[in-house]
């Protein structure tokens, strides 16, 4: 099972590859070779080096596409090892041991078709328990892009008979090509999906319905016809006393109600205060399509907590993922986490919208605002809730008072959304915010 041995160290695949390479004559062994052998070996080595360079070019191009970078700036360095190339592109040091192993795996992936099929079968087994290669969630990492780029030339050429034997691998390949826009870098792998006809609802037989009705009627208890309707004189006196007592209680309650002050304390006003919301400045590190909803995007937002927050937003119709990447946003961080179409969302990105919702955009946070700082409102300095209570509908009561003014400044009842670098704004004036 690949789940235990493979991830214990992808070195197994690397070692197996090197062993098979030695056995097949890809490297010089101890036996004496003639000039013809040397020419064949030299040609094979040249072809192999060319395939590895092409693989690195593809990986570099795919990583750059996922980050909206110009790949030509990095293609001259394809002679370097894969890890150095990836670090240069992402500007992030790869300290994740598991991710490093996947890079080693990609760099040493075999070119021989039979050995390639063997490794694909092992990855298919691994993916029976995972949606993506690294981590236990749904968001692909650089490892998925790197390995997808490595597999694609081989998988695209597989006949359907071989693809059908690798259902988990094909599901993963389809997910990666759907969630990432590689801009025509890869030919789309078309999958044959089995048709699904939902079963018809079971109809209840007429005889069963009649039997059920009769049984219900037979179980209905009828009131006895000769019930006593008259009460004794003593009973009537008791009832009269009880009624008088009840009427007296109502009069006293009404009198006390009149004595209460006309205005109840400011609990209602407190519920509507924007200070209940914890609105922070965040940086979208990555945005991608939702795995199962075309209208949703999944963002990874840095709010200075040491780990990124995953947020699902309905921006797919209005913004491309690359337009959101590396953008500062104002988002509510104390909403209760919940799933949107099976993907956990840990916040709410605040967006301005025109009246007919044909234009929607995240609020513009001024350049210079600090990641993680709280948005403030003059005159509303209360402490935000730790977590908003959905039952109290606090957010529903506050958002009607969030809007942009005629200059596009985001406000709560006319009070600007303020950061250390100035107010949050929008290109949409007199727009609602939610």
Automatic annotation (TrEMBL):
According to the record, the residues making up region (Disordered) are: 200-267
Q: Which UniProt keywords apply?
A: Cytoplasm, Protein biosynthesis, RNA-binding, tRNA-binding
Q: Which residues form the GST C-terminal domain?
A: 61-200
Residues annotated as domain TRNA-binding: 273-376
Q: Which GO terms describe its biological process?
A: translation
Task: Tell me where in or outside the cell this protein is found.
Answer: Cytoplasm
Gene Ontology cellular-component terms for this entry are: cytoplasm; protein-containing complex
Q: Which InterPro entries match?
A: Arc1-like_N, Glutathione-S-Trfase_C-like, Glutathione-S-Trfase_C_sf, NA-bd_OB-fold, tRNA-bd_dom, Tyrosine-tRNA_ligase_regulator
Which PANTHER family does the entry link to? AMINOACYL TRNA SYNTHASE COMPLEX-INTERACTING MULTIFUNCTIONAL PROTEIN 1, TRNA-AMINOACYLATION COFACTOR ARC1 FAMILY MEMBER
What name does this protein carry? Uncharacterized protein
Organism encoding this protein: Deinandra increscens subsp. villosa
């Amino acid at each position: 099972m690949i789940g235990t041995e493979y991830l214990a160290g992808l070195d197994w695949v690397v070692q197996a590859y090197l062993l098979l390479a030695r056995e097949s004559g890809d490297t010089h062994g101890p036996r004496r070779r003639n000039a013809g052998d040397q020419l064949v070996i030299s040609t094979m080595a040249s072809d192999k080096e060319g395939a590895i360079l092409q693989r690195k070019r593809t990986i570099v191009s795919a990583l750059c596409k996922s980050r909206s970078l110009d790949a030509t700036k990095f293609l001259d360095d394809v002679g370097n090892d894969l890890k150095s190339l990836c670090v240069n592109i992402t500007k992030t040091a790869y300290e994740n041991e598991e991710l490093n192993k996947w890079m080693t795996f990609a760099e040493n992936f075999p070119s021989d078709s039979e050995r390639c099929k063997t490794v694909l079968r092992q990855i298919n087994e691994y993916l029976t328990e995972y949606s993506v290669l690294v981590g236990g969630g749904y968001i692909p990492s650089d490892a998925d892009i790197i390995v997808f780029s490595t597999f694609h030339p081989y998988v695209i050429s597989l006949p359907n008979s071989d693809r059908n034997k690798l259902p988990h691998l094909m599901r993963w390949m389809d997910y990666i090509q759907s969630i990432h826009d590689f801009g025509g870098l890869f030919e789309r792998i078309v999958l044959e999906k089995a048709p699904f006809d939902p079963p018809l609802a079971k109809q209840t037989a007429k005889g069963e319905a009649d039997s059920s009705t009769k049984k219900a009627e037979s179980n209905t208890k009828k009131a006895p016809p000769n019930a006593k309707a008259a009460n004794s004189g003593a009973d009537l006196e008791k009832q009269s006393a009880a009624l008088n007592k009840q009427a007296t209680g109502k009069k006293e309650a009404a009198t006390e109600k009149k004595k209460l002050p006309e205005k109840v304390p400011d609990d209602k006003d407190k519920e509507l205060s924007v200070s209940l919301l914890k609105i922070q400045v965040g940086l979208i590190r990555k945005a991608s399509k939702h795995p199962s909803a075309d209208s949703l995007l999944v963002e990874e937002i840095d709010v200075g907590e040491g780990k990124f927050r995953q947020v699902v937003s309905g921006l797919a119709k209005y913004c491309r993922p690359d337009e959101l990447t590396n953008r500062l946003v104002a988002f509510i961080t104390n909403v209760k986490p919940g799933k949107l179409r099976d993907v956990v969302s840990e916040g709410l990105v605040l967006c301005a919208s025109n009246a007919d919702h044909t234009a929607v955009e995240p609020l513009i946070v001024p350049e210079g605002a600090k990641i993680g700082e709280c948005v403030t409102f003059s005159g509303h300095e209360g402490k935000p809730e730790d977590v908003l209570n959905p039952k109290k509908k606090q957010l529903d009561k506050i958002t009607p008072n969030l809007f942009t003014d005629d200059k596009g400044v985001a406000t709560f009842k006319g009070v600007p959304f303020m950061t250390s670098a100035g107010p949050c704004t929008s290109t949409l004036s007199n727009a609602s915010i939610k």
